[in-house]
Input
Amino acid sequence: MTRILVAGGLGFIGSHLVERLLRREDVAECVVVDNLWTGSWRNLAHVEDSRLQILVEDVERVCLAGKFDEIYHLASPASPPWYMAQPLRTISANVVGALRLLDVLAPGGQMAYTSTSEVYGEPLVSPQPESYRGFVDCTGPRASYDESKRCVEAMLFEAHRAQGVRIKVVRLFNVFGPRTRVDDGRAVSNFVTQALRGRPITVFGDGAQTRSWGYIDDIIKGLERYFWADGVDYPGPLNIGNDREIPVLEVAEFIQRRFPKCPIVHLPAPPQDPTNRRPDLSLANRVLPGWTSLVPYEEGVERTIAWFRREMRPGAAAKRPLVANASAKAIGQNLRLV
Output
């Protein structure tokens, strides 16, 4: 039987991944470590499974008993406003967190890491293949996230080469969907929450910058197949995302048409905001034959609007217990505060 650890398992992507892991009959225990920096216990509050244990603690400092057969490292904020506000903490979560997790990996176990398209920086090549080394400013305002992700990739591949550690590294492109924070700060969630509040939809710069929006269900299916379901023996890095490239302004206009009373306003562009993002999925098509992003961004946005509408309705949050007095019925008494 398999013992699993998920760092960042109460976050947006991490919680969806935990749900998929718990579908496996070979899982004896799934331990989630999350400090609730950007995650929320509510993301797994509906799960009633005795195999799930949740430790509320920084991944760098958590005390863990024994070794784990599979470790998934997702313990990092991914939104620029969040990682720019606490850059040293971001670097620590990624780099020091990875070192801590390697310490508790069982011999012959697998370490999986969700890296990011941000390792490509301001790309001079489009679409971006995994072989592209990127164009990153290692001292710029986004460096805490970009470079700490690159550092963990380097660390894991060195562990793989020098010590034979089994690794899986994915580079995710602009994932969106339900369980994103209301105050996440990235484009889709920003536009949706602003519109639902009846406020102007704010676009940074002229909105011509492009992104490749991947709906969470499609991305999680790709992670499931790569990390465990298909028995893939390829360390990565592997691009996972939607290769349909869309300007940010087009997404804002799509949402604004559903909320016509909310005007689009333009704000100054943030520093070093990448002009384009589009994954080259040639390698993913070979490693994961038949996998693709099935949900078009239009449908994904509609689903996201519906989810945020429920989350933001008056009294919705008040009906849920806070972390300090939570746990019992919410997650089957599996929440442990440390």
Notes: Residues 143-163 form the longest helix (21 residues).
